Amino acid sequence: MDENVKAFKELTGSDAATAERMLAASNGDLERALALHFDVAGDEQMPSAADEDEEEEEIAPPALPGSGSTDMVAAILRNAKHEDREDSESSRKPWQGTGSGRTLGASSSEEDAPAESPEAPSPLDRHNAKKVRVIFWADGFTVEDVTAEEEAAAKAELAEKSAPRRTGVVGLKSSREQAPLPMPKIPELRKYEDNKQFMEDLTKGIPPAEFRELDMSSGVPRPRPVDIMLGDLRPREFPGEAIKRMMMPQMAAMPKPAAKPAVRAFSGQGHTLSGAPAGEASTSSGASTAVGVGAGGAWRSSERAPPAVDASAPTTTLQVRLTGSSPQRFTLNTSHTVADLECLVERALAAAGEGPRGYVLATGFPPKQLTDSTATLEAAGLLNAAVTHRWA
């Protein structure tokens, strides 16, 4: 509590008694206590009807930069006080952003014309109103979406109620593992000279353009009411740096997100549908089983003549799928060897413009590599078979 009192005094410039009173009214919640203080301060600093005549004689706060002798903040507060007097019989707060009977969708001519009968709207008209808090400082103003804060608090409360209740002994470690409270957002300080249209809309008693929304809660589109709560904390400057310093210990105590695991490049080996099975990967990819390159870096088949086919002996036809080339059909005797088939394959590759390099032949499914070049086609199970070629 002592730390909250100290932070409250530093942020608002108030005394310890005010800080303790606001914190007690907010159950020790510093953020709610600050919001309550700003709301109360804004209401208390609005001039009363008895002081209206003396107000002009008093020294006004510094004029807005670039606004000449007109203090737009004082004009906004005077308008709020004037509307508060007119709506004294209503239950609304001093100024709720509706102006003198103007609506969100009013045209420019309607905004300039005085209201004929400023009647207090019924509670139904204020249904689903957007609540905004505007605090005036010496160096600018801040805008906070109170509706968003209330909705976030309601969701957090609902989630806490719906969470499964834990039973058993709770130790210090268990309490530390609870989800941390969300960090409050620091409102952005807006400069008066950069937001002239915003200030002029407040002076006219109409909601600024950024607050204008359509309300579909009733099923019929209509301009959403806007309740704007004003607070005047001049001549104090916006304590942005003090808020950041106050939040630094909380930010340091928040658990850091878990580091993403480093992405490791794939270091394995891929296999095509016609590739050799995993058990034969080590032999099929080795240079000792690859064929094709002969002495001097030429095709091995260049060292021998193509096999001759004996028409009187049993024959077989093999279909060979060449990588990067069209399929080939070869007719050989069943007594020919795998080396004879390799000779025909190499000649077909050379005719397709392929240079000498290692390759393997495989057949069946899963593909089985032909490693014995001396075996006959019949012994190797290649009668009328389909053979696949791939580069080593």
Summarize the structure.
Residues 50-59 have a biased composition (Acidic residues). The protein is α+β, with helices and mostly antiparallel strands. It has 3 domains: 1-44, Helicase, Ruva Protein, domain 3, CATH 1.10.8; 45-104 and 128-159 and 186-245, no CATH class; 278-391, Ubiquitin-like (UB roll), CATH 3.10.20.90.
Overview of this protein structure:
With 392 residues, the chain is an alpha+beta fold. It folds into three domains: 44 residues, Orthogonal Bundle (Helicase, Ruva Protein, domain 3), CATH 1.10.8; 152 residues, no CATH class; 114 residues, Ubiquitin-like (UB roll) (Roll), CATH 3.10.20.90. It is 31% helix and 14% strand. The protein is built from twelve helices and eleven strands. It has a five-stranded mixed beta sheet, with helices on one face. It has a four-stranded mixed beta sheet with strand order 3-2-1-6. Strands 4-5 form a two-stranded antiparallel ribbon. Strand 1 and strand 2 form a beta hairpin. Helix 1 packs across helix 2 and helix 2 crosses helix 3. The radius of gyration is 43 Å and the shape is rod-shaped. About 17% of the residues have low confidence.
